Amino acid sequence: MRVFSIYAAAMLALSGAPAYATLNNVTPPDVKAGKAVAEIRSGVDFGDDQNARAFRLREQFDYDFNEWFNLRLFATQAQREAGVFEYGATGVESKLQLLEEDETGYGGAIKLAYALADGDDKPDSAAVLWFGRTSPGAYILTHNVVFSHEVGEDKQDGLGLALSWQGLYKLPEGESKLGFEMFNNFGRLNHSGSWEDQRHTIGPVMYGKFSDSWGFQTGLQFGISRQTPDSAFKFFLNRSF
Prior knowledge:
CATH architecture: Beta Barrel
Number of helices: 2
CATH class: Mainly Beta
């Protein structure tokens, strides 16, 4: 069974905006009946005193029930520099594929996500995401749009907005792909501030496979706004069943 890297990054899908560069991911709209994928994501943020180094983990399991409906369960953890390793959230996501790229030339899907935060002083988060993709020739162009809202007594009011973009080139041999991706977190629309007050990153990404069932994604991101970590490295390992 082929492996498709279909993820919604923990901070992207659940905060409505990629609050940290480590686990950011651009998600394609594919849903394939009977496909099951388990994945572990890891990453490290590197920054100055304001954005200290942080190590993050996310575990998730996806299952495509048919040609249009996908369900995902996940959990997240994080450890800041000189800090303890903390549990972050447990959540569920459901993706509905609405447009078939093979039929229309543009693939599209909508996702609903909810994250239950660990601890009484942390708000939950709900999000609605749109995934779009087109593949001219050997290129794959994907974009995501995320709207989110915090839920609970300690929530921050306002609708969050995040955008992500990815351009990949399929290498002639094998199933490897190389490209670049960009993440734009505008924060809450009622208090978004200037570009420097938001979180924006850009960098290279690579997808590959170790075997028919094992695949990976790795990449670097570089901050292009003051509120973003200087750089971040990610490595995702997935297995299809």
